[in-house]
Amino acid sequence: MATATGLESLVDQMISVITNDGRNIVGVLKGFDQATNIILDESHERVFSTKEGVQQHVLGLYIIRGDNIGVIGELDEELDASLDLSKLRAHPLKPVVH
């Protein structure tokens, strides 16, 4: 899990969050607390499918509880913009099993 120190450098940056239930949420990190609860702005969920391209569902301002976060990563906006998500096919992620 990322520490508070590690997240400080990502504030106001575009990040990707993989949740424990397999969701991929992308947005601008606006804040976080000691329990790694995070606030994302301009966020959307990317839904992957093997039959269709990636669907993006707009979420807007969104809060994710720290205990539901599997991975937080910085998103390369230039590389991300160059991807054609409508042609990308992938299996949805499975939930984390403890």
UniProtKB/TrEMBL annotation:
Record flagged with keyword Electron transport: no
InterPro entries (alphabetical): Lsm8, LSM_dom_sf, PTHR15588, Sm, Sm_dom_euk/arc
Subcellular location: Nucleus
Domain Sm span(s) in chain numbering: 2-78
Keyword list, A-Z: mRNA processing, mRNA splicing, Nucleus, Ribonucleoprotein, RNA-binding, Spliceosome
SMART domains reported for this sequence: Sm
Subunit structure comment from the entry: LSm subunits form a heteromer with a doughnut shape.
Homology family: Belongs to the snRNP Sm proteins family.
Purpose of the protein: Plays role in pre-mRNA splicing as component of the U4/U6-U5 tri-snRNP complex that is involved in spliceosome assembly, and as component of the precatalytic spliceosome (spliceosome B complex). The heptameric LSM2-8 complex binds specifically to the 3'-terminal U-tract of U6 snRNA.
Listed name of the protein: U6 snRNA-associated Sm-like protein LSm8
Protein's gene: LOC104787275
